[in-house]
Amino acid sequence: MRIYLDHNATTPPAPEVVDRMTRVARDTWGNASSIHHFGQQAKAVLDNARGEVAELVGADRSEIVFTAGGTESDNAALRGAAEALEASGRRHLVTTTIEHEAVLNTLKALARRGYRVTLVPVDASGIVSVERMAEALGDDTALVSVMHANNEIGTIQPLAAIAEAAHARGALMHTDAVQTTGKVPVDVRSLGVDLLSLSAHKFYGPKGVGALWVRRGVRLLPFVTGGRQERGRRAGTENVPAIAGLGAAAALARSTMIAEAPRLEALRDRLEAGVLAGVPGAELNGADRPRVPNTTNISIERIESESLLIGLDLEGIAVSSGSACSSGTLEPSHVLKAMGLPHGRTLGSIRFSLGAANTEADVDRVVAVLPGLVAKLRNLTVTMRR
Amino acid sequence: MRIVVAMSGGVDSSVAAALLAEQGHDVIGVSMQLYPASDRAGRAYGTCCTLDDLHDARRVAAAIGIPHYILNFESRFEEAVVSNFVREYVAGRTPIPCAHCNSDLKYAALLDRASGLGAAALATGHYARIVGDDQGRHHLLRGLDHAKDQSYFLFSLTQAQMAQARFPVGHLDKVAVRDHARRLGLPVAGKPDSQEICFVPDGDYAAFVERQAPALTRPGVIVGQDHRVLGTHEGVHRFTIGQRKGLRLSSSEPLYVVAIDAEAAKVTVAAREALGRTTLTAAGVNWTSGVAPAGWRPASAQIRHRHAAAPARVRALDINRAEVTFDDPQTSVTPGQAVVFYDGEEVLGGGWIE
User: Do B237 and B317 belong to one domain?
Assistant: First the structure.
């Protein structure tokens, strides 16, 4: 029996998601832009899914733009807002050092085109300071982008206060909410943001589909140009089955979240306590609270996470560490580095992210296996140095 | 038995993995990521072990049905192999990075990783053989296919390393290996062999050294054995002992590089006869039996990968040096290359030519 503890990477699609996608792919294959019956059927599927996603995040359905996933949503938000505001002379973009590559590399690309980009550092808590964010803002700031929860350590950022500071300077506020949507209540109005990215496969939906929420009245230049789909904000024939899957996942998350979040939190805390107590030299990375309920990131002294990860996989336990580069090897986490953790601690980090299928038995097995594996790897390290 | 196989994405290591899996072993494929896909300036860095090869290794592992992991050895490879390669050229020697990669990477860090994964053995696609005797000793032999033999690059293996090393294709010839690849339906069955040093795919070592260490290369003079200046050059890293091409000298008889003095940035050339040498010393010597011979031992000594071994006598000088006396003068005794001592098929040991 394999134990999957890598839900922040992706989640298994829920049976109701697969059922709806299969049905739509087979029966509702029309082009949603067509006027005839077939088009109308497909359009109805999109409308239904749009409503389900809007309800999940407390939005109006007209504000939801379907995309090909979280990364595309981030690109559309950052590039679209930057370009739309270019004429106003606002050419300054602000973000944090612990963002996902989808945001960091997109802003890097904009910096090469002449935008000024400020990266606000974080401390070892992994929570960005509202004061430091506010200090980084200027009168020419076009957009502030701060993730809702960090994908590696799970810490939740004080979005509402940052959004207030951004708005006070006349800037727009975007958040990458890929790691919170479907896990904890996400309400676009109370977050105070203007743009929000979400991704289906992080909450039991399919890969390759997501959405960008765009507050009514916010102007974006389209990032993908072509036909008039998605009110001209995202061209290209809609991926109807995938969007149907996103809708099903959103509806499911809405009905299960209230019970599931505390269940996962208790499991996560049990795992965390077990590992911290059972493995000498194990330390929690980032603040304990506020955090998404399913994530814990632990560094283990004198261990290279690559070896530990492979060792756990051979034991049938799937976890992750840092960010995988194109070949699939590991690089030290830019998030842990940005938090100022010592080099050794960034090399030995493991992320456990729990999900729907996990049980107490799963967690207990990890707590039982890990100390022995760590001891074995440490012995080897000693031999190597000798 | 759990066996880790180092998979490069080429035919040999792919067949090695597939044969072990076919024999029923618990096989884990690993590939070493050795350098970034592009260097800091964004230039392509290599062809072997680049993304394409890692992807090939993964496809083969999937076809066999074994787990496959890519291990990040970039910093170790840079330290143990690439920077050593550059330093050696700049110092006027001619390095063989493949031997360093075996001794300092595969049979060091990778072997440790394999143990960490609970493996009893580490298999590679090398053309070489290891046989055991009644006393429990291991003997390293040339690959059965002498045209492909890679034992020259493996002289540093110790008894402990040989106890864990496996060469599943060492008793096969290349044709048989490709037949196996086709029989097993491996997606790399028709892939061409790699030829050059993996991180210098265009074979232009001089340009590589200049890119890596621009501050360490400097022009100098080419002189005859009478110290007369015959020409100039753009750096000692552009030369190797026995080299004739690229000297840009006009002379009535062909001239060859016979000595390189990096400190003086001086390259000495002479007629072919001056190349002949009957003795050499080697450093970093390993005796595969674990015991150095007492006194002079007859052996055949091979001074380059593609050379034939020549009759000689070998003796240990101290704990890790050795002296070799050839029966007949050898051309191209080149500092930085390995000298490997054989008794027939068996590797007795070897070291780095001083």
Answer: no
